[in-house]
Here is the input.
Amino acid sequence: MQQSPAAHPIVEIRKLSFGYDRSRPVLRDINLEIPRGSVVGIMGQSGCGKTTLLRVIMGALRPSAGEARVLGHSTNTLDAEGLYAMRRKMGMLFQFGALFTDMSVYENVAFPLREHAALPDELLNDLVMMKLHAVGLRGAAHLAPTELSGGMARRVALARSIALDPQLILYDEPFTGLDPISFGVIVRLIRELNDSLGATSVIVTHDVQEALGVVDYVYFMAAGRVIAQGRPDEIRRSGEPFVRQFVNGSSEGPVPFHYPAPGYDADLELAAPEPQASPVMPQASH
Amino acid sequence: MRVADVRARLERLGSGVTFHVLRLGFASRFLAYLVLHSGTALRRFRLTTAEIYFAGVLSLIIILVSGMFVGMVLALQGYETLQRFGASESLGVLVALSLVRELGPVVAGLLFASRAGSAITAEIGLMKATEQLSAMEMMAVDPIARVVAPRFWGGVLSMPLLAALFSATGIFGGYVVGVQLIGVDAGAFWSQMQAAVDVRNDILNGVIKSLVFGIAVTWIAVFEGYDAPPTAEGVSGATTRTVVTSSLAILFLDFILTALMFTGGTHQ
Here is the structure.
């Protein structure tokens, strides 16, 4: 599904900035488009603003400037009802699944159906079983979330997030803490579900190597900005120092090993010689 | 230096007061929103009955056992004092009025705050910390309507029933000690009680008290849970605050309500 990202975007973000207060902008001047039917990755270091961007797309945060258009709606102006109507067409997989611990696997998947569609029990049962079958866990329907492994919990959460056949599926760090087999299963499911449901997927992650294998297009973020974008092969060949450091997982590069700190001498309480010219470690050059 | 000190203290005091006033305002808006969005909890009443089970039925053991012991101790202490004035036959009145007007609502309220209130806060707080509430919002389901409102109404409905059961078992405990063990005349015990306890002035006022305590405790519990920082310390802190704040609220409200209800000279 290699298509130009400009074709029929399902998410369109223009000159978007966001900050919890004026002095600390988290997102700065973001422009991105997510075309219908694609799997797009938003990657970057922890704390670079990618989860905040995801929260803006889902309408949980309102931009301070610029616009986010999602499924044809501008999230800037939607009221609570409009937001809920939009979210019915979206599914979201949380980092650790966020399953309801007081309900069984079956009830977790049935939850969105029960809340939004008055279905007869038989039809509801069929739908739940189909969704669980799609993630390979039909046999685990009766289990409690506490009886599942991390990978299984993630799959149940995925079945729950596609219960209403969403047009847009958002993944927040879907690979964190998974063993290699579960990881492979999730990667396969992301692609399969995206294509079979005719949905569009957005994956926010810092597991670059793994994610590059499944996405069609990548946006790289650092310090609240998009600093690089392209298809996975373009990203792998990128000459941008930050992207290279990130893709190769190297400790050497523009992102310093040390968190900004005053002079080492001062912290070790050595006799301070002359005041240092630059007591603060340099920040990333982006 | 000293001026700066005073200034810093004043600033701290000011920001502390502002913080608490803001939080009270936030909690009030939360309550208003909760009540306005109670449609789901009342329409799908099964959600609320499940919470009545958790808050009410599961609190029964502690409520009944405590009520029994409080009634038994009341009878022992009451008999000791009453018999000095030759009024030991009024023991039933003493036990019943103490329980129905005061001890039933207050002690049941305090027990309810520590048993059910803390559980409600911890559950909502943990649901928030594990992103279950966010997940619900993402599924276009309002967590206040779906999770908080049923717990609130479950608590509010349970509390008067628990207080009534507390008083009833307390009176029974008083009967066991007073009549069966000490030997107060059973007829006097019950008939004096029947004559002296007034439905409107005593029982209804007790029920009103327990309803007010139920609203206060459950409101504090759901708000603290919903407002808890989504971390282990955050949830444990919120649970502690629920028990402390709602216990103080019960004692304070009890004084206000008692002053309003029983000082008008309307009773006896």
